[in-house]
Design goal:
alpha/beta; binds magnesium ion; binds guanosine-5'-triphosphate; six-stranded antiparallel beta sheet; elongated; Rossmann fold
Length: 222
C-alpha cells in the first residue's frame, strides 16, 4: 500500500532545503509537544524529520534541509516524527505521538498496523445523499476519539438540496462534542468555514466514503 500525502503539505515544507527564509519544521507540523521530548544536543546530532509518505520499501522523510528515504519499520507510520540518526537510520528514535490511528493487521489477530500519527483534526466527510448514514459517522467518530484526534463532521453537497437542515440535525445527534459544518465544497465555503482547524503547523486528515468530496475540500484549502 502506498499512502502519499506529500502533495497536501504546504509548499514551503515540500521545498524544505531549497529555501532558507522560513522554518520548515513548523511548516511540517513541529509543535512544542515534540520539542519538549528532546534536548538541544539531540537536535544537533539527530535532526527531527517527519514521515510524509509510506511506501512498501521505504519511508519518505522531510526535515530542515532533509529529504530522504528511510528503511521501512512496522513501528513507524505516516505523520510520525523521528530523530534521524544519520549513521544508523533504522535506529532513529520515534517521538511520542499526539494521536495514533491503528487497526489489527490484516491476517493476524494480535499484530497492529499503524495507519497515521500526529493528526490534530479529522474531518469526517459525508454528503447529503445516499452516502449519509449516522452509524457510519458514529464509527468514524469513535475511531477519532480513540486515536486522540479532534473530529469535525463536514456535510458536503448542500447545493443539491433545498433543505439540508435535516442532515445537519442528524449529524448533530452523533455527539454533542463534535462540531458539524455544512457546505458547498466547490465554492469558497471550505476556506471560510474550515480554516480555524487548519492553522499553520496543524495536521488535518479527511475521512469518508468515495465521492463525498474529500479531495475537493483538500484542494480548496490548499
Ligand atoms: N454539487 C456538489 N458536488 C460536489 C461537492 N463536493 C464535491 N463534489 C463533487 O463530487 C465528486 C467527488 O468529489 P471528490 O472530492 O473527488 O470525492 P472524494 O471524497 O475525494 O472521493 P475519493 O477520492 O473517491 O475517495 C466530484 O465531481 C466533485 O466535484 C459539493 O459540495 N457539491
Ligand atoms: Mg479523493
Amino acid at each position: 500500500m502506498i499512502r502519499d500525502y506529500s502533495d497536501f503539505l504546504p509548499l514551503r515544507a515540500r521545498n524544505a532545503g531549497r529555501h532558507s527564509d522560513f522554518n520548515p519544521l513548523q511548516a511540517l507540523g513541529w509543535q512544542p509537544f515534540f520539542a519538549q521530548q528532546i534536548s538541544v544536543e539531540d537536535l544537533s546530532v539527530t535532526p527531527p524529520v517527519r514521515i510524509v509518505e509510506v511506501h512498501r520499501n521505504g519511508l519518505h522523510a522531510l526535515g530542515d534541509g532533509i529529504d530522504t528515504i528511510l528503511p521501512p519499520r512496522a513501528d513507524v507510520t505516516l505523520g510520525d516524527w523521528l530523530m534521524l540518526d544519520p549513521l544508523r537510520p533504522r535506529s532513529s528514535r520515534v517521538l511520542e505521538r499526539t494521536s495514533l490511528i491503528k487497526r489489527p493487521a490484516p491476517g493476524t489477530d494480535w499484530q497492529e498496523q499503524l495507519i497515521a500519527a500526529n493528526i490534530d483534526t479529522a474531518f469526517i466527510v459525508t454528503s447529503c445523499n445516499q452516502d449519509f448514514k449516522v452509524a457510519r459517522l458514529e464509527r468514524y467518530a469513535a475511531l477519532t476519539f480513540e486515536a486522540g484526534i479532534t473530529p469535525v463532521i463536514v456535510v458536503t453537497k448542500t447545493d443539491l438540496l433545498t433543505d439540508s437542515q435535516s442532515y445537519i440535525d442528524s449529524a448533530r445527534t452523533v455527539s454533542d462534542m463534535i462540531d458539524v459544518v455544512a457546505l458547498y465544497a466547490r465554492g469558497d465555503a471550505p476556506r471560510t468555514k474550515l480554516t480555524s482547524w487548519c492553522r499553520p503547523g496543524k495536521t488535518v486528515a479527511f475521512l469518508g466514503s468515495s465521492g463525498v468530496g474529500k479531495s475537493t475540500l483538500a484542494n480548496a484549502l490548499l
